[in-house]
C-alpha cells in the first residue's frame, strides 16, 4: 500500500474562515469537516447537488486553502485543511519579572 499523495493549492486557513463563506458553502464545509474525508460522489449524494456544482465548490475550497486533495490509489478524497491555532505565549520579560 503506497502513501497517499497530498495536493494543496493555498495556505491552510483557520476554522474561523468558514464564517466568510456563503450559507450553502459553509454548510457543505461543515459536513465535510464532520466526515473528515469525502469523495465527489459522496458530496453529490449527500448534498443533493449536481456533480458540476459540487466540483465548483471543491475547487473554490481548494483555492482558498480550506480543503486538500488526497490521492489514495485510484480514489480522490477531499479533506479539511486548517492550520492549528497559535498557542499563547507570555513574553520572556514577564517571566523574568515574576522570578524577581
Describe this structure in words.
Strands 1-2-3 form a three-stranded antiparallel sheet. The model is unreliable at 1-10 (pLDDT under 50). By secondary structure, the protein is of the alpha+beta class. The chain has helices at residues 23-35, 40-47, 51-64, 92-99, and strands spanning 5-7, 67-72, 75-80. It has four helices and three strands; from the N terminus they run βαααββα.
Percent range of helical residues: 40-55%
Main structural class: alpha+beta
Q: Number of helical segments?
A: 4
Radius of gyration: 18 Å
Extended strand count? 3
Tell the overall outline.
Answer: elongated
What is the N-to-C succession of helices and strands?
EHHHEEH
Strand content: 15-25%
Query: How confident is the prediction overall: mean pLDDT?
Result: 78
Separation, N- and C-terminal Cα atoms = 58 Å
Low-confidence stretches: 1-10
Could you describe the largest sheet, including whether it forms a barrel? 3 strands, antiparallel
The largest sheet has its strands arranged as 1-2-3
